[in-house]
Amino acid sequence: MFSIFEPHTEWISKGKQNKKVELGHKVLIATDQYHLILHHQVIEGKADALLTIASVDALLSRYSNIESRSMDKGFYSKENKELLSLAIPHLVMPKKGKLNTREKEEESQKKFKKLRNLHSAVESNINQLEHNGLDRCPDKGLKIYKRYVSLGILSYNLHRLGKILLAAQAAQGIKQAA
């Protein structure tokens, strides 16, 4: 137990050097090409690799035309990769540990590298969520924590939509001035 006030709190370890201590719950998010969050899930005590199939199933049930999906190394398992590659044409799921010749060849392809580099946008989205208030939850209880995360994601998406609309208005104003 890490908190006597919030017994559901977990220790979050990210596998990076010089990491700061984080307490709470991991939040799984899926974004689209416009950086809108399409799916999220508060993870309670499960490894990322165990959630891969369920999260992609949830996305595929809502959005049938997913061309690519990028995940970090925590979601990799041989079974996950084989199953998801049947449903998603361009799957970016780097393998943990040492790569064999076929895996090296696959991960050095131009399309894989391009999609892998786009994955950094998801990390940016997560950072923006933290800046929009999801770095700490002032309320008590797991149910309310999940609600707080959902409201934070709604707020984030509204902020993104506002940026898109302002950019469209600015572009339209430039066209009218010309």
What features would you describe in this structure?
It contains six helices and six strands, in the order ββββαβαβαααα. The radius of gyration is 19 Å and the shape is globular. A hairpin with a 5-residue loop joins strand 3 and strand 4. The longest helix is centred in the C-terminal third of the chain and has 36 residues. The protein is of the alpha+beta class and about 180 residues long. Strands 1-2 form a two-stranded antiparallel sheet. It starts with 9 loop residues before the first strand and ends with a helix.
Distance between the termini: 63 Å
For the CA atoms, what is the radius of gyration? Answer: 19 Å
Low-confidence stretches: none
Q: Which sequence of SSEs, written as H and E, runs from N to C?
A: EEEEHEHEHHHH
Spatial strand order of the main sheet: 1-2
Mean pLDDT: 79
Helix and strand content put the structural class at alpha+beta
Q: Assign a percent range to the helix content.
A: 40-55%
Could you tell me the number of beta strands? Answer: 6
Query: Could you say which overall geometry the principal axes of the C-alpha atoms support?
Result: globular
Number of helices: 6
**Quick one: biggest sheet?**
2 strands, antiparallel
Strand content: 5-15%
